[in-house]
Amino acid sequence: MERRPYTVVVVALLLLALTLWSTYSVIANAASEFLVTTLAALVLPSILLATALAGGAAGVLAVGLLPWRRLFAGAAGGLVVGLLATGGMLLAYHHGPAVPYVAAVVAVTGALGGAAAAFRFLEAVTAGIAGGVAATALGLVVAYFQNDLVDLFGNQETVGTMAEAASRLQLTTSILSGVLAGVVAFIALRRTGAALPWPVYPAAGATAGVVTLVATLLGWLGRLPLTAVVEDYSAFDAQIIYSRLPEQINHGMIVLFAGAFTAMILVGRTIRRA
Predict the structure, then answer these.
(1) What is the pLDDT of residues 10-35, one digit of tens each?
(2) For residue range 230-259, what is the model confidence (pLDDT) as tens digits?
(3) Predicted pLDDT of residue 1
(4) pTM score of the predicted model
(5) What is the 3-state secondary structure (H, E, C) of the chain?
(6) Nearest CA to 45 among 168, 163, 227, 221?
(7) Which of 136, 195, 230, 267 has CA 20 to 30 A from 258's CA?
(8) pLDDT tens, residue by residue, 129-140
(9) CA distance 200 to 190
(10) Do the Cβ atoms of 48 and 82 come closer than 8 Å?
C-alpha cells in the first residue's frame, strides 16, 4: 500500500500560503493601479510555481484515494488547491485589469499540477514535488536575505559591481536549488523502499526544474494583459517585466539539469557492480 504524502501536502500548502501572504504584503501597499498591475505581473510566476507544487501534492493524495481514476482524481485535487490559490491571489489583486484572466490562470495551474499525479510512478511524482518544495523554499530564503547576500557576493555599491554580484548570486542559487531538489528527491524515493528502475531517480530530481519552467511559461501567458497595461504607462517598466522571462528560463533549466544530475549520481553510487 502506497504511503499517503501528508507531509509533502502540508509543507507545499504552507509554502503556497507563505507565497500568497508575501504577495499580499507587497501589492496591498501599492499606491496606484499602475504599481499594483506591475507588481502583480512580476510576482505571478512565483505564485504559479507554488500553486503547481501544492496542486501536484494534493493530486498525489487524491490519486492515492481514487487510484482507478488517476487523471480525474489528480486534476480534481489540484483544482481545489488552484481555487484556494485563486482566492488568495484575489485578496491581493482584485481591482486591476484582467483580474478574471489572472484568476483563471492560477486555477488552471493548480489543476495541471494535480494532473501530473497521473504519471505511472506515483512515488517519483511525490519525491519530485518534495524536491521542488525544498528548492522553492531555498529561493524564498535567498530572496529574504538578498541584500546581505549581494554584498557577500561582491557588491561595492556601484552599478557594475551590484549587477555582477546579483548575477553570481542568481547562478549560485539556481545550482544549489537544483542540487537540493535532487538530494531531497533521491532521499524521498529511497525511503519508500519501492523497487524502481534507476531512470526514475533523475526524473524525480529534474521535476523541480520542469515545474519551474512550466510555471514560467504559464506566468508569461498569465501576465500578457498585465504587461500590455504596464506598457501603456511606461515602456521601461514593461521592459523590466519582459527581461525576467529569460532569467526565469535559465533558472529553470539549471535547476532541471542540476537536480537530475545530482539524483543520478546518488543512485549510481548505490548500484552494486555485477
Answers:
(1) 999 999 999 999 888 888 777 777 88
(2) 888 888 888 888 888 889 999 999 999 999
(3) 38
(4) 0.90
(5) CCCCCHHHHHHHHHHHHHHHHHHHHHHCCCCCHHHHHHHHHHHHHHHHHHHHHHHHHHHHHHHHHCHHHHHHHHHHHHHHHHHHHHHHHHHHCCCCCCHHHHHHHHHHHHHHHHHHHHCCCHHHHHHHHHHHHHHHHHHHHHHHCHHHHHHHCCCCCCHHHHHHHHHHHHHHHHHHHHHHHHHHHHHHHHHHCCCCCCCHHHHHHHHHHHHHHHHHHHHHHHCHHHHHHHHHHCHHHHHHHHHHHHHHHHHHHHHHHHHHHHHHHHHHCCCCCC
(6) 221
(7) 195
(8) 999 999 999 998
(9) 11
(10) no
Domain ranges of the chain: 6-268
Cell (9 digits) for 108: 488552471
**Cell numbers at 162, concatenated:** 551590484
